[in-house]
Amino acid sequence: MSESVVRVLEQVRVEKEAVDWFIGHQANGRILQAVAKKLEVPQEKVYTNIDRYANTTSVTIPLCLDELAESGQLQPGQKVVLFTFGTGFTWGACYLVWGS
Is the model more confident about 33 or about 55? Predict the structure, then answer.
């Protein structure tokens, strides 16, 4: 998953330090920690909720976005990278700027 994050940031010409939130599929907490470590980004920028809900499959990323927005932590103009994988054979990432 970290490779897909690197690729999408290269495509949009954004440095990882400029990203406010990295939100990944919540399949496993250790995977999210490993992605943060490999990307060399602070763990605080990798939002997680797997400790509260476990793996919620396809709704993990939308649930994270909703929680961040509802709590006020996700602000208009913030840069976000979403990343996911499926059964280890497919993966993807996207970059967005949260709307106003």
Answer: 33
What mean pLDDT comes out for the span 74-82?
Answer: 97
- Count of the separate structural domains present in the chain: 1
Distance CA 13, CA 80 (A): 14
Hunting for tokens 């970290």 — which residue is that?
2
* CA triple 24-74-80, angle to 5 deg: 45
How many Cα atoms within 13 Å fall on the side-chain side of residue 77? Answer: 0
Dmax (CA) for the chain in angstroms is 35
CATH number for position 82: 3.40.47.10
Pairing of strands 79-86, 90-97: antiparallel
Output the CA torsion sign for 63, 68, 71, 76.
negative
Cα separations (Å) of 37 from 2, 17, 32, 73? 9, 14, 9, 22
Cβ atoms 50, 26 nearer than 8 A: yes
